[in-house]
Amino acid sequence: MIAEGKITIDLARQHGDPCAKVTIRSNRRSDIGKVLCGRSPQEALSLLPMIFSVCGKAHISAASGALRSLGLNEGLEDVAGQIVVLGENAREHLLRVILGWSGDRPELIAQIPVAQVMSLVAELTQEMSLNGVSDIDAVSRIASNLSDLLETHLFSCPPEQWLQLQTFADLECWARTGETIASQYIDGICQQNWQSVGAASTKFLPPLPLDELRQKMHNRDGDSFIIQPEWNGLNYETGPLSRCHSHALVASIIDEYGTGLLARNIARLVELAGIPQALAELATELTNKNVKRQEQRQDMITGIRGVETARGRLIHSLKVRNNQIADYRILAPTEWNFHPHGPAAKGLQSLSNASDEDLQQQAHMLIQAVDPCVDFAVRIV
């Protein structure tokens, strides 16, 4: 594995006043794709799981999609890739809830079948061949098992029923009366009146024109764009809140409390609750027909594909010449979310009226709500 790097965040306070300045520094690498240059597409696909420990299946799906956009029929077929990525997203969301929301109550973790959570991606991957040939019934069964797990250990009701919650009052009743790790964590936020902690104005990453995006990633300033991405001079965020902000419950919370701790964590739960149904629907799209291979061009061609991961939108863009990778660029969602002027920075800037101890706790909770997978350190200076 290649270390992804670390985010270091300094919160500057003056004379006990609220946080006056936020400085975000990153030593995350923009050149990881270079290790794939000079290799065949098949070799690149086989190396990706060895390079990325987080969202590994999403990286394979993005690479496969980029290659398939060139007529190079390598890797996971689109629907199969979507299924595997959804399974990986469910696992990542669940793990972050289990590890990040249990606090000092290990008995809550003990109640959850972690082995079943960890095996979720492996089971789905086993059902997907590189050509998308699959046992549809098996995928549907896995989706049903995930739904049962979420009902028992997170929502105390079927996920589709929980998704019918529409207002903060509905959510507060569920959280106050629930006994799961999710309901108790949300209730804790409400009991401390921390619903709006970290709320700040933000812009959600829209679909981007692929030709322009491809050009930005591969031109002479490509590394700078990948390290600190902006679009038309604006900062955007990507992730569960970006994807689920229009859901009735999330929208209601944003209207009342802004894009703070409560909205971000509920968006994660909304997305997780919808995954079993999304898996079941994708299973019906699977086909046992062989994909017709297209003629491979031998001149320089560029493929690009974005995949929505648990952390946000992951984009792979690559150039191929004579069946060899000539250039490979990867834009991770972390770089949008932890841009020095991005959503994490704006949210941290809004923290106020807190002791150093509370400020440290709020900062950690907010960062994990934005991106629970990123390696980070917070210093109050």
**Largest sheet, strands/sense/barrel:** 3 strands, mixed
| Number of DSSP helical runs | 17
What strand order characterises the main sheet?
A: 2-1-6
Mean pLDDT: 88
Helical content, roughly? 40-55%
Given helix and strand content, the structural type is: mainly alpha
Please provide a brief summary of the model:
About 50% of the residues lie in helices and about 10% in strands. With about 375 residues, the protein is mainly alpha-helical.
Overview features:
single chain; 381 residues; mainly alpha; 3-stranded mixed sheet; globular
Task: Outline the structure in words.
The chain starts with 6 loop residues before the first strand and ends with a strand. A hairpin with a 2-residue loop joins strand 4 (313-321) and strand 5 (324-331). The relative contact order is 0.19. Helices cover 50% and strands 11% of the residues. The strands form two sheets. Strands 2-1-6 form a three-stranded mixed sheet, covered by helices on one side. The chain has a three-stranded antiparallel sheet with strand order 3-4-5, sandwiched between helices. The chain has helices spanning 41-51, 56-68, 78-100, 106-110, 114-127, 136-155, 159-162, 168-177, 181-191, 210-218, 222-227, 240-244, 248-257, 261-283, 333-337, 343-349, 356-370; strands at 7-12, 21-26, 301-308, 313-321, 324-331, 376-380. The radius of gyration is 21 Å and the shape is globular. Helix 1 packs antiparallel against helix 2, helix 6 runs antiparallel to helix 14 (261-283) and helix 9 (181-191) runs antiparallel to helix 14. By secondary structure, it is mostly helical. The chain has 17 helices and six strands.
